[in-house]
């Protein structure tokens, strides 16, 4: 069986022991039923990966010993910052999961005029922690050792004000916008609106912030499908697909 990949938010040192976090420990010991001596792959979320062996696999405590360290693989040469309008339920989870699998470098959930989700206080903090866990889980699955940050939600105007990527794109159906096949870039910002689309005022603000319209064809995609298609096109043109 292929060694499971586990994210641990801790420093990894050759020869050192790592206590697995509760969720990972439960998965390793109770679901996979791995015992002492079983191999694991640990990664710290900041780019380092380790080959490790289980040295303790109890019901309350699971410990792995780092055997070897190396730099992780799987990072794209194209750094994309995704601005994703917040959607309800599993749709936002799906967008984050697939964006991570497609090599996104950072994600910021956005409040938009037509978006119907508003988070405050503890609810926002809990949702942010959940989204970051979705990103970490996607890294475990796809082989990345760097977990992209999911930033705290922002109003669209605030996110636009902070953008300085070389290529800035906003998805807008019905426009003639397409990728320039002759251009090259190492960084990009991608703006995805909500189910109801961005308002005319928001599109004007994006244009003023240097965003060019990008169309994905004659069909209107759902807000969680759009980043999958757009990121695939970007990785194919400028990244590593």
- Computed over alpha carbons, the radius of gyration is 20 Å
The side-by-side strand order for the widest beta sheet comes to 8-7-6-10-9-11
Name the poorly predicted regions: none
Secondary structure class reads: alpha/beta
Mean pLDDT: 92
Tally of contiguous helical segments: 6
Number of DSSP-assigned strands:
11
Q: What spatial form do the alpha-carbon principal axes imply?
A: elongated
What is the beta-strand fraction?
Answer: 15-25%
Percentage of residues in helical conformation:
25-40%
Q: How is the biggest beta sheet arranged?
A: 6 strands, parallel
Order of helices and strands: EEHEEEEHEHEHEEHEH
Give the termini distance in whole angstroms. 27 Å
How does this model look, in words?
Helix 3 links the parallel strand 7 and strand 8 (154-155). The strands form two sheets. This protein has a six-stranded parallel β-sheet, sandwiched between helices. The chain has a five-stranded mixed β-sheet with strand order 1-3-4-5-2. It contains six helices and eleven strands. 30% of the residues lie in helices and 25% in strands. With 241 residues, it is of the alpha/beta class.
Question: Summarize this, please?
Answer:
The protein is α/β, with parallel strands linked by helices and 241 residues long.
Walk me through the topology.
Layout: E1 5-7, E2 17-19, H1 22-31, E3 39-43, E4 48-57, E5 62-71, E6 79-85, H2 90-101, E7 106-111, H3 121-142, E8 154-155, H4 156-161, E9 167-171, E10 187-192, H5 200-208, E11 212-214, H6 226-238
Parallel strand pairs: 1-3, 6-7, 6-10, 7-8, 9-10, 9-11
Antiparallel strand pairs: 2-5, 3-4, 4-5
